[in-house]
Amino acid sequence: MTLLMAEKNIFPSIAVAICVPIAFALFRRNSWFRFVTTPEFIATRESLIEKYRRTEKIVNLVSPAAAFGLTGLILYLTAHPLMKLFNSAVQPDPDDLFFARYTGPAVLMPALFWAMLLSFVIVLSLCYVVLGRRVVRDLMLLSDSRLGFQTGRVLSFLALSILIITGMGTWMMVDCWIRLKPDRIEVNRFLTLGTRSWPLSDVQRLVAVHSFKAPSGNVIYRPSAKIVMKDGTVISTEQVLHLAYFRRGEYDRMPVFESERQLSARRAEIVLEMLETISESADVAIEIEDPYPAE
To answer: Nearest to residue 45, comparing CAs of 148, 141, 185?
Structure first.
């Protein structure tokens, strides 16, 4: 069994190809972002292009390379402390039979965005120091005139949006978990506030999911547990049972660099043991759901 998708997902590429031109058009049309040409700039534009032709080429070559290198360095220096902080935020209770949640690696994507923003600020600051404020201002004017919007305002808007979205996403991941206790199941979902709890006597179905089709249409082979309650609520470990779990007093992290086959086998083992524990208390048989069997 493999964790690989059965078909290539092209939807993200299509979304980017559609959304980026639309975003650029909106920035050009919005009065706050739009670049407004002044008579003074029109009179000096050609001379500025000629004056900074060589400087602009060097900046366009060096700045992205420097930002890329700084992003990697910042991520390398901050990843471990951030993951440690993330892991310490929510811990299993002493009476938890099973505890599943997002783990440290989940914070790497938000950390990547934060590292990119910080590296951009550092590179821009270095440009001001090395080239001078006037040169940087002239280069930004030339860039804005070509793009049709004010780059500084657009980047500030994007930076604030990314910080808010990634910050909220990280907080929701920290507060997302499933606990199996001797007499009940407690769940804190990703997009909800607060904890919901059900007695094990309310369990109606127990399903071991081996494969499923994602909203994008891709078939995913990732073992997970699906618990259906009598009130119709469906509890799934599809998201939180990822790289760490806690069972019967033992806290174990699945190594990030294990092979896909090994991760899949360990996940299937955890799912089966968790469902068997519930089955004994709730007196409900375990069903197998594998609509797309792996060849």
So the answer is: 141
